[in-house]
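Run log, item B.
One chain of 332 residues. Sequence copied directly from the ordering sheet:
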Amino acid sequence: MKRIPYSPPFISPRPINEKRPLWSVMIPVYNCGIYIPQVIQSVLSQDMGEEKMQIEVIDDASTDVDVETLVKDIGKGRIKYYRQVENVGSLRNFETCINRSKGKLVHLLHGDDRILKGFYQKMENLFEQYPQAGAAFCNYVFINEKGEVCGRRPPEEKKEGILNNWLIRIAEKQRIQFSAMVVRRKVYEQLGSFYGASYGEDWEMWVRIAKNYPVAYTPEVLAEYRGHTGSLTWKKVNSGQIFPDLLQVIKNINKHIPEKGREKVTNRTNKHCAHLFVGYAIRICKEKHGFSNAQVLIQQALTFDKSPHLLLRIGKIYLRILMHKVSKNFWV
């Protein structure tokens, strides 16, 4: 079985006569043991009971800590644990999460993220109020390794409800993180699981859902996405794999966009991606002074866009790199 499937993996429907909970909170983890207690506690503080909520940790053969013991100690028997026989990669681990889920609503909550008080009740209310929605998500904030808020996501709408023109908006750039998103299991059953790349695969999924279903939203901040240098994203950034992954994801996303507006959407996507890469280059310079890696990211950014705004931003980076040779404190 390939670690990165070329097409959406099939999700098996649950048995017709099976007694099912409303919620499945599935927590995929891999070598993020330092954060697992936080994510578990954030869920348990909103536990709706076993009849209504399945909670399970899916371990992709972690080597940093004994995840099973950690889950047992914190969960006190409330949380189920499943370990992959071998490391299968993030996409296959997500697939396992969804196939093992029993609930009608599935929340894939990564082991290094957290949710805030009221998340599950608000999401449940959204699905009740908008039964046509195939998925729903909330606004969220960015946190660092210490759990401190380091960035805020501007709201998609001022009021909650079904998002307008959502397919085009989400196709233009990534706007959602896993921690904020809940998907009906039947949607995964119809559309399949994540595929194509292990960076940006969620973006393609959110576009795929938007093409086939209305999506509900609340501007309330009820989730936290943690950015840290040990994450899969940063491993991709430092290895250079982020570039081919993103190209593949954009190619897959284009399949979902109506041909009439595809070129306009692609142009906007390219601009967003260019600035994303420049942003990564700046962060690498600030945190590690990895100027060679930063230069690679800048070159990749220029394959997406060469607008004056981008060139000006890149010029400032090179100026800072030059100044760094004079003062190591320039980035502070």
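Observations after the first pass:
- The CA atoms of residues 111 and 324 lie 36 Å apart.
- Residues 23-228 form a domain with the Spore Coat Polysaccharide Biosynthesis Protein SpsA; Chain A fold (CATH 3.90.550.10).
Flagged for discussion on Thursday.
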